[in-house]
Amino acid sequence: MKRLLSGIQPTGILHLGNYLGAVKNWVELINKGDEAFIFIPDLHSITVPQDPKKLKENVLLTAATYIACGIDPKKSKIFVQSSIAEHTELAWILSCFTATGWMNRMTQFKEKSAKYKDKSSLGLYMYPVLMAADILLYQPDYIPVGEDQKQHVELTRDIAESFNRTMQVDFFKIPEPLIIGESARIKSLRDGTKKMSKSDESDYSRINLDDDPDIIRQKFKKSKSDSIESIYYDKKNRPEISNLLSIYSAFSGKKIKDIEIEYQKKRLSDFKSDLAEITINALSPISQEIRKLIKDKDYVTKVLKQGAEQAREVAAVNLQNIKKIVGLF
C-alpha cells in the first residue's frame, strides 16, 4: 500500500479546476487502495490577511466538499493542519536544514509579496518550509499536486535530502510529485493562459462546485473563445477552446481527438451547450451533497476530529524520531 498526502487551502468554495486537477484524482487513488492523508492547510491561509470567522467557515466548507466529492472518511484521514502541532514544530526543525538561497527562488513568494506589498510577512516567505513539514511528517510516497505546486515538492525533496545528508541518516523518504494528465491543468474560462483560480475577480472565470445548472450554462455560454468556428485542440494558438476540450474530455471520458471528430460539423454554441450539460450532470450530485453536509456541521466536525486523531498517531511518532536524530529532548 502506498501513502499519498495532499490538501487545498480553505479560501472558499472549490472550483472545477480543484476538482478535476486534484480531488477527483485523490478519490480514484484512494479507491484503488492507497492510504490517504487529506488535510486542510489553514495555517497556509493566514500568510495573507483573513477574516477569522470566514476562515473557520471555509474550513468546514472545504471538509464538506472533500466528502461530497467522494473522499470517504472511513478510507482517508481528513484533518485540519492547525489541529496537529507537530506540523509547526517540524517546520522549525526543517528550517534549520533549508538554505536561504532555495527560499529566495520560490516564485509564489515573489508573486504574492508583489500583490500584498506592505502586508508581505515572514510567514509568507517561509511557508514552503511548513509545506515541507506537512509532507515529511507523514512520509508519503507521492503528493498529487498541480504544476504550480511542483516547485514546492522539489524544495521538500531538497530539504529531506539536506536533513538525511547532514544528520548522516536515511530517515526521510524522498517524495514524488504526481501530476495527472491534461485535466490537472484546467484554465480560466476568461483567459486560457491562466489557471482557474478562486482569487480571480470575475466569477465567470470559473465553475464553482456549488453553482446551480443555470449559472453553469451561462458561464460556458459566455466563456471566451476565438473567431475560428471549427473545434480542435491547439494549446498554443487556441488556449480557450483547448481548455474547454480538456474539460469535456475529463467529464466524458472521451479522447480529445474523438471529441474533435464528433463536433467537426457542429457549431461552437452546440459544443458549449453540450459541455455545460455534461458538467451539470457530473457536478449536480456534488453540489447537492455539499449543501446537505454544510448544514450538518456536527458531523463534519466529527470527521475532522477523528481524522486528526488518526493523523496525529503517525505525526507524533515521526516527530519524536526526528527529535532523537537531531539531539533534542
Task: Please provide a written account of the structure.
This protein is mainly alpha-helical. The chain has two domains: 3-178 and 297-326, HUPs (Rossmann fold), CATH 3.40.50; 187-291, Tyrosyl-Transfer RNA Synthetase. The chain has 13 helices and five strands. It has a three-stranded parallel beta sheet. A two-stranded parallel ribbon has the order 4-5. α4 (86-95) packs across α7 (122-136). The longest helix has 30 residues, at 297-326. The mean pLDDT is 92.
Compact description:
The chain is mainly alpha-helical.
> What coarse outline follows from CA principal-axis ratios?
globular
Share in helix = 55-70%
Enumerate the spans where pLDDT stays under 50 for 5 or more consecutive residues. none
User: What would the CATH topology of the largest domain be?
Assistant: Rossmann fold
> CATH class of the largest domain, anyone?
Alpha Beta
| Secondary structure tally, helices | 13
Q: Return the string of H and E elements.
A: EHEHHEHHHHEHEHHHHH
